[in-house]
């Protein structure tokens, strides 16, 4: 999976200090999953962890283990996940059993990545998606979780008809409502692209159409490379526009998995990138999260030529640690 930049708490008190005041408001309807857990979940079966376990003698294994595999990061769920209720339920149960907070990404919209193409696919129809995301939310139930909804969904409408756009924002709005009603201890964030995609006002308008009022917040930079500072400036502008134009505002999270060196203008497996700040509370946003798994390909492009989106590439992972 990949997320582009196509051209043109912990303690609540500590969290309140870390996040600008502008970001708060309209989020009190949700219980706090952070205060219900003792840190973020590290998936022992993530793709880098699985590769390390299978290749213990590889000279790259130690660095990939300590710098990537042992860090909390999101697990992605889509049409490859099989029975979505079982897949999500088992994952959240594993985190709950060790009192940790799981990070999940839902990635199954019909026509997913319509304008990029490397991660195409998704549910076969609007009705199929509605049923899938309802089962996803129900599988979490009352357990604490963080969910990012549908990377790519609002960043690029250029290749879509108005009818397709209407279907898309409708599905997202209904998805936000599913988590609100069926997963009350989940913080759900609608994906909001990145600073290199569309201007903040346009993104705020799209988020509002897509029902962000009923989500906990929005997510930035998923699978992209823009610096934390660039995302903070953009996120604050989006949140300010939501407040000024629509009467509410929302917190946001930033994907820092590969953003230490910033963006060079390319989104698909660019060379010379590095892993960023590991998953944490605060840091300029509500949370900094590893949403993209470092080392997983964005598609058949760049330093991942010959790979498919989501394939783990140990050499890419190793170079993300050291930056060459």
Automatic annotation (TrEMBL):
GO molecular function: hydrolase activity
UniProt keyword annotation of Disulfide bond present: yes
Residues the record marks as active site: 152
Domain of life: Bacteria
Coiled-coil stretches: none
Keywords recorded for this protein, A-Z: Carbohydrate metabolism, Cellulose degradation, Disulfide bond, Glycosidase, Hydrolase, Polysaccharide degradation, Signal
Enzyme superclass (EC): hydrolase
Stretch forming the signal peptide: 1-31
One family name in Pfam for this protein: Glyco_hydro_6
EC number from the UniProt entry: 3.2.1.-
Recorded family membership: Belongs to the glycosyl hydrolase family 6.
Record protein name field: Glucanase
Organism: Plantactinospora solaniradicis
């Amino acid at each position: 999976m990949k997320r582009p930049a196509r051209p043109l708490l912990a303690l609540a008190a500590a969290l309140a200090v870390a996040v600008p005041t502008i970001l708060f408001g309209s989020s009190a309807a949700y219980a706090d999953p952070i205060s219900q857990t003792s840190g973020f979940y590290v998936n022992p079966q993530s793709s880098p962890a699985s590769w390390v376990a299978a290749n213990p003698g590889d000279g790259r294994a130690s660095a990939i283990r300590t710098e990537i595999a042992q860090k909390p990061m999101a697990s992605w769920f889509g049409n490859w996940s099989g029975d979505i209720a079982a897949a999500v339920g088992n994952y959240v149960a594993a985190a709950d059993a060790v009192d940790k907070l799981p990070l999940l990404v839902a990635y199954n919209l019909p026509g997913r990545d319509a304008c990029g193409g490397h991660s195409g696919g998704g549910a076969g129809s609007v009705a199929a998606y509605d049923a899938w995301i309802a089962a996803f939310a129900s599988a979490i139930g009352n357990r604490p979780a963080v969910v990012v909804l549908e990377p790519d969904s609002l960043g690029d409408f250029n290749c879509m008809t108005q009818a397709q756009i209407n279907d898309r924002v409708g599905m997202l709005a209904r998805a936000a409502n599913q988590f609100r009603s069926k997963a009350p201890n989940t913080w759900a964030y609608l994906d909001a692209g990145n600073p290199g995609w569309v201007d903040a006002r346009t993104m705020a308008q799209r988020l509002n159409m897509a029902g962000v009022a009923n989500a906990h917040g929005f997510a930035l930079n998923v699978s992209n490379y823009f610096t934390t500072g660039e995302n903070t400036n953009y996120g604050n502008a989006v949140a300010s526009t939501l407040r000024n134009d629509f009467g509410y505002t929302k917190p946001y999270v930033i994907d820092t998995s590969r953003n230490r060196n910033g963006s060079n203008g390319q989104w698909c497996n660019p060379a010379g990138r590095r892993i960023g700040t590991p998953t944490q509370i605060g840091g300029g946003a509500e949370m900094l999260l590893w949403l993209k798994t470092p080392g997983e390909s964005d598609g058949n492009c760049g330093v991942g030529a010959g790979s498919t989106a989501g394939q783990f590439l140990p050499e890419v992972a190793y170079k993300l640690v050291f930056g060459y």
